[in-house]
């Protein structure tokens, strides 16, 4: 971390004022000059008349950086669960130091606000409910979000791949309605294979969906 407030060796806090635009933050004045802004929780314990050194100011600056990083992470987690790797990537994009990133993730993990096991289960459940995927595709998605193979494997153990393939096939089947059977089968087979489903599952599902379509047309 670069040295902050190099113009101070020792100073006295002469004012602590709530910021106009954000009353949850405090402006700290040293010897009559503005020194830095802090969150209320970071400024807790400071008092007017207190002497403060450059080293103490730098420590306050680091605590403020950690507070901001933590608030950013909490803002993300308020929208949906995130993996620890996703949080880390976001903080890096905002130029947060690695040590602070680690501290924030450790704190939120201890508080059960970041949980890679729970995130993996959530991700798979959401996909199963709204956008079925093959195990291969889901494993790749989890890997992209920093989930280990072990955690991903546990989350994927409940996936019914045949059911997922069947739901995808039924949704796509109408795209090629009216084509000859051979061409229809080829198109749906290629589509499902590209989604990562195993050939034996694809073959069974394609036949099942084709027969269901024929039955519907006969009724």
TrEMBL record:
Function summary: Modulates RecA activity.
Sequence ranges assigned to domain RecX third three-helical in this UniProt record: 160-206
Superkingdom assignment: Bacteria
Primary localisation category: cytoplasm
Similarity comment: family membership: Belongs to the RecX family.
Ranges of residues in domain RecX first three-helical: 69-108
Record's subcellular location: Cytoplasm
GO cellular component term of the entry, any: cytoplasm
Domain called RecX second three-helical: residue spans: 115-156
Naturally occurring in which organism (per UniProt): Candidatus Promineifilum breve
Keyword Secreted: no
Full protein name: Regulatory protein RecX
Keyword Cytoplasm applies: yes
GO terms (BP aspect): regulation of DNA repair
Alphabetically ordered keywords of this record: Cytoplasm
């Amino acid at each position: 971390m670069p040295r902050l407030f190099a113009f101070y060796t020792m100073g006295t806090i002469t004012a602590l004022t709530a910021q106009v635009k954000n009353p949850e933050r405090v402006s700290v004045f040293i010897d009559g000059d503005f020194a830095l802004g802090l969150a209320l929780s970071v400024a807790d314990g400071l008092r007017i008349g207190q002497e403060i050194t450059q080293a103490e100011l730098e420590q306050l600056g680091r605590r403020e950086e950690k507070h901001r990083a933590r608030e950013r992470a909490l803002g993300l987690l308020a929208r949906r669960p995130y993996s620890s790797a996703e949080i880390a990537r976001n903080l890096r994009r905002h130029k947060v130091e690695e040590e602070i990133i680690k501290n924030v993730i450790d704190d939120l993990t201890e508080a059960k606000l970041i949980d890679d096991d729970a995130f993996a289960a959530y991700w798979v459940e959401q996909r199963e409910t709204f956008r079925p995927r093959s195990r291969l595709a889901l494993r790749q998605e989890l890997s992209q979000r920093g989930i280990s193979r072990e955690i991903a494997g546990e989350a994927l153990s409940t996936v019914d791949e045949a059911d997922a393939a069947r739901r995808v096939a039924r949704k796509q089947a109408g795209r090629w309605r009216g084509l000859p059977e051979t061409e229809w089968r080829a198109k749906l087979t290629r589509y499902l294979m590209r989604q990562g489903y195993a050939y034996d599952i694809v073959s069974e599902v394609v036949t099942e969906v084709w027969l269901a379509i024929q039955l519907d047309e006969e009724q």
